[in-house]
Design goal:
With 322 residues, the protein is mainly alpha-helical. The chain contains 16 helices and no strands. It is globular.
């Protein structure tokens, strides 16, 4: 690790107000990254009227939202905690990097101590588990087996950086984000709907791919810090041509899934048009990333494309699918 950037692993809190601590925990949780809740929103919208009106559905869906918030908080906070302990965040967010917001890492800035972060992670995991159990209880435990399995997948993805350290293996981070995002839609959907649907699976796959198309670019920018702690992401272990080809493959899969969605019975053909802006931004993302190697710019474009893609799904959902 470079001199002067090692984290101060203290357990005593520096002088702070309660408001400063709460703001630090909020930043640690990443709850404000609203893209994480797109899957839950689409799950509710894709339910048939009969499923929405079934007793317990509304309460169950609200509890699934709380569970999703617990999973997001636990995963993101644990990722920051591990990055603080091994020094990779200090390297990636050092003062020489002008494109990263240091204040977004409350453990590095001292707004949250390591001990507080550990307690926060444990509390978030407890909320995620209890909220999920509460949701299935609200449905009188009448959900199909696959919905329990899918919620379990969501919980397993908490170990993105800690525990099994899924993101420390080539392709593991991408798989965890993809499966976790898909499960965030399909777990509540199958629980309340009592069955699968092709369009729900395709929408879940699109959301998962779009999130991967953000994180894969971040990983390239953080490659030196990841290598220093043996975090074997695809970008840190594979030749440039391999991970650049993977980014192209993600784009192709996203475009193909969009075409398949527009071909399903419930979705209008013009879904292709409402998703065209997201497709265009993803093309520009490929130009800024694999071609120009402006990785943070490409990452930002990925987030914008994620938002546009959700709007592109929302319009036909509200006008036709419902």
């Amino acid at each position: 690790m470079e001199p002067g950037i090692a984290p101060q692993r203290t357990t005593d809190a520096p002088p702070r107000s309660t408001g400063e601590l709460l703001r630090g925990l909020f930043r640690l949780s990443k709850l404000f990254v609203y893209q994480h809740y797109y899957g839950w929103g689409m799950a509710w919208l894709l339910l048939t009227p009969q499923a929405r009106e079934r007793p317990g559905t509304t309460l169950a869906m609200l509890l699934f939202l709380v569970g999703t918030m617990g999973v997001v908080t636990c995963t993101c906070s644990l990722d920051d905690l591990v990055g603080f302990r091994n020094g990779s965040d200090a390297r990636n967010y050092n003062s020489g990097e002008t494109k990263r917001n240091f204040s977004m890492k409350p453990l590095l800035s001292g707004r949250v101590t390591e001990r507080e972060a550990v307690g926060f992670v444990s509390a978030a995991a407890t909320v995620a588990i209890l909220a999920g159990l509460g949701a299935f209880w609200a449905l009188d435990w009448q959900a199909p087996l696959e919905s329990y399995v899918l919620y379990g997948v969501m919980l397993c993805c908490i170990q993105y950086s800690g525990g099994m350290r899924l993101s420390y293996y080539p392709g593991g981070g991408e798989a965890a984000l993809f499966l976790g995002t898909m499960s965030g839609l399909l777990a509540p959907f199958t629980a309340a709907q009592h069955e699968w649907s092709a369009d729900a699976v395709l929408v879940a796959a699109l959301l998962g791919l779009w999130l991967v198309m953000v994180s894969s670019y971040s990983n390239v920018n953080d490659v030196e810090g990841d290598r220093s702690v043996n975090r074997r992401t695809l970008a840190a272990t594979a030749p440039k041509q391999v991970y650049k080809s993977a980014m192209v493959a993600f784009f192709v899969l996203s475009a193909g899934s969009t075409c398949l969605l527009a071909a399903t019975e419930r979705w209008p053909w013009w879904t292709l048009l409402t998703l065209l802006p997201a497709l265009g931004l993803h093309l520009r993302q490929l130009r800024e990333g694999p071609l120009r190697e402006e990785w943070l710019t490409a990452r930002r474009l990925g987030l914008y494309a994620f938002d546009l893609g959700f709007v592109g799904l929302l319009v036909p959902t509200l006008l036709v699918v419902l």
